[in-house]
Structures are given as C-alpha cells and as structure tokens.
Amino acid sequence: MRIGELARRAGSTARALRHYEQAGLIDSEREPNGYREYGESAVVRVRNIRALVSAGLTLEDIRPLLGCLDGDVLSRRPSERVLGIARERLAVLERRIAAQTEARDRLVAALVAAGVHEVGVHGSGLHEAGLHEAG
Description:
The protein has 135 residues and is an all-alpha fold.
C-alpha cells in the first residue's frame, strides 16, 4: 500500500510515516516511480508506535522495542525491558515538570515582589493560591 493509504488506515499522517521511517521504525520498498510501498503489517506497527508515543515515549525509546511492534502491544503485560524504558521516560518527564514548576514559581515571586498582583492564569494554581485577582 502507498503512504497515503497507510496513513489513513493507521490514523497517522504521511509526514509522520516518513519520520518513523527515517527513525528506522518502519520500512518500505521503493517502486520504480519512487513511491513508497508498505506491507500490510505496517498498519499494526504504526498504530503501536502512535500508542506508545501518545503514552509519552519518544521514538528513541521505542527503537529497542522493534521486535514487539508487530503484535498487540497494549493488551499484553509489558516486559521488564519495556517497564524499564517507561520508568526512565517517566523520570525524565518528572524532572522536566519540576524544573518548569520551579521556573514558574520564581517568575511569580519576581512579579509579586514587583507589585504585580495579576500574575497567573486560571488553571495554573495561582488563582487558588490567592495570587490572581478576580477579574
């Protein structure tokens, strides 16, 4: 099947498929006219890649899992290897969230110190902390 059909059937885009191919997660054959031709198994593989990316993994995280991508990845209990990759990614995300939270808190403190009382947006937690004046 051509790239457009694979994108449609897998719920993806042609651009994402080219990116997955460049990352070594899927492969295609080239037709004489230069078009990419994908096998039927690519549909399941792309759906699995999308599900894992949606869960927070990066393509680099997914690469070691190539042997698992052609089956029903989400219905099986993850292997220790997969759990290790997921734990590592979660730790990275938690460090990033903590760093962003600290940066936000420093900025709020600087604004409050400068006499600015309307410093947050609804949903940021600042309104509830009494730092955001009702508007």
